[in-house]
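Assess the record.
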Amino acid sequence: DRSDRKKYSDKVYSLLKENGRLAGVLFNHEFEKSGPPFGGTEKEYRGYFDARFDYKVFETSYNSINPRAGREIFMILVKKNNK
């Protein structure tokens, strides 16, 4: 659920070792229905990850299936060393 996204970001951060990586594909599209699937925006996602992760890759997915082409973000994030 969208309301759990901040908790998800916090949990992933707590589980990863220093320099650990989070990789995935996110929708970069707002859906008309309340979900699932739940949509989102690049700006929204960056709000969850900016403080705790460095961005190795965060770009439009180049190999999405046709119905999702141009509406997905591929990401590889690296846990920051917050000493």
About this structure: The chain has a mean pLDDT of 92.
